[in-house]
């Protein structure tokens, strides 16, 4: 049973298994990606109901540009058709995008910007789509910005802190995720939120993303709630603070 008083405020998800889900059903991989959009709608609605404040979805990595051209084209087309106002407005969800938008087709970028603007005042939850995203690129970009500021005399080396880096990441508008979920059976985080997940609780499951439903989400949250988050402290210290 989920403890409604201990819901992670930020859940990040690696939505894996769409292609394998489709292949096992004798379908094209694009069929699996379409089914994955339905799962996004389901999980978004349930997260808002539970009180999650930020939901970050790993949608397309920079490495995914190396996939077959027809699959990339289908995925970009799916982004266009799946950005329906209903899911955002019905659930009062704000939409944001993180990633290297310079590689995204102009038509898709335009739709992304329009959806961000139209949902800007929604405040029940923020859904963040990591699109053309690479954590290594994000950190490299932040490092270059900091180096340029030092070179220009706007920042002193001795003044660089963790906050200096946080403020220059694409995720600077949200807290770090407490819970990272990966579906599809793989046990890695695939260049996703490397800095931000320093103290996230990880949850891996074999369920393919199209089959990840409310019950599967509850199971992940229950696993999160069963753990003691110590942040370097001892178990005794944490228990003493909780009394």
Summary, kept brief:
This protein has helices at 18-23, 29-50, 69-82, 85-90, 106-118, 135-151, 162-166, 214-225, 235-242, and strands at 10-14, 54-61, 93-98, 125-133, 179-182, 201-204.
Characterise this structure.
The chain has about 240 residues and is of the alpha/beta class. It is built from 9 helices and 6 strands, in the order βααβααβαβααββαα. The protein has helices at about 20-25, 30-50, 70-80, 85-90, 105-120, 135-150, 160-165, 215-225, 235-240; strands at about 10-15, 55-60, 95-100, 125-135, 180, 200-205. It has a 6-stranded parallel sheet with strand order 3-4-2-1-5-6, with helices on both faces. Strand 3, helix 5 (about 105-120) and strand 4 form a beta-alpha-beta unit. Helix 2 (about 30-50) runs parallel beside helix 3 and helix 3 packs parallel to helix 5 (about 105-120). The model has no long low-confidence stretch (mean pLDDT about 95).
């Amino acid at each position: 049973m989920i403890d409604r008083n201990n819901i992670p405020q930020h859940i990040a998800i690696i939505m894996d298994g769409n292609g394998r889900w489709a292949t096992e059903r004798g379908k094209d991989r694009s069929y699996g990606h379409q089914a994955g959009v339905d799962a996004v709608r389901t999980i978004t609605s349930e997260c808002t109901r539970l009180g999650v404040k930020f939901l970050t979805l790993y949608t397309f990595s920079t490495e995914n540009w190396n996939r077959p051209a027809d699959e990339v084209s289908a995925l970009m087309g799916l982004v266009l058709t799946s950005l329906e106002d209903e899911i955002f407005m019905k659930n009062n969800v704000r939409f944001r995008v993180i990633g290297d938008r310079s590689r995204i087709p102009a038509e898709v970028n335009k739709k992304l910007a329009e959806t961000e603007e139209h949902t800007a005042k929604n405040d029940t939850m923020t859904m963040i789509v990591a699109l053309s995203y690479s954590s290594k690129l994000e950190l490299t970009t932040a490092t270059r910005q900091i180096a340029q500021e030092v070179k220009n005399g706007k920042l002193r080396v001795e003044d660089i802190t963790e906050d200096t880096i946080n403020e220059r990441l694409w995720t600077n508008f949200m807290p770090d995720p407490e819970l990272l979920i990966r579906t599809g059976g793989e046990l890695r985080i695939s260049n996703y939120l490397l800095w931000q997940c320093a103290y996230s609780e990880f949850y891996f499951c074999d369920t393919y993303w199209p089959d990840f439903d409310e019950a599967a989400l509850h199971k992940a949250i229950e696993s999160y709630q069963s753990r003691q988050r110590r942040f370097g402290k001892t178990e005794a210290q944490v228990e003493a603070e909780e009394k």
